[in-house]
Amino acid sequence: MTAFIQERMTGAVETPAELGTKYIRWGFRLFIFGLVVGFIPLAHYMHGSFEPVEAAFLQRVTLWWGCAFTLAVYVAQVGSLAMIAIGLCYVVFAGDGVLTSVTAAEHIAPMLCAAGIIAEFVAGVAGYYAVAAVWPNFYYTPITAGKVTWLALQAVCIAVYVVGVMWAHSGIKHAVRSNHALASR
User: What pLDDT score was predicted for residue 9?
Assistant: First the structure.
């Protein structure tokens, strides 16, 4: 039984400090994951140097992202660092007594963020090969339908992450505003 289900069944409420710790833990794990998968672009560059590229590839922004997996790696690395920063905000505001409770949306937010990062990686890497099975060499040729399909898959995953960040931002913003209102009295 997962901790989430157990908390819901027993009525246990997560404190802001516990929520912050969850963000920090997931953030560090996903950052290490991002560092490890950072070697995928290197391997892809080595293999991709043998792939035929057309003139259109050399004239587009794709050249800057010479590896198809760069976005997935960046989202894992930058998204995980943002999760650590969000977690630190929760821990600090909870320690100061400014943030005393979390909403249901805030409780779900770290899971959305982590799921969005992991799903983006899967969509970026596995999705690349799935789309390439339909439109071979779509990334380097370029084949617009293949690129749009592949990027749309990734955009949906990034949107899941952004929703989690927005829910966390809402709680942190509320804490900052209440702290400002208390300090100005």
Answer: 44
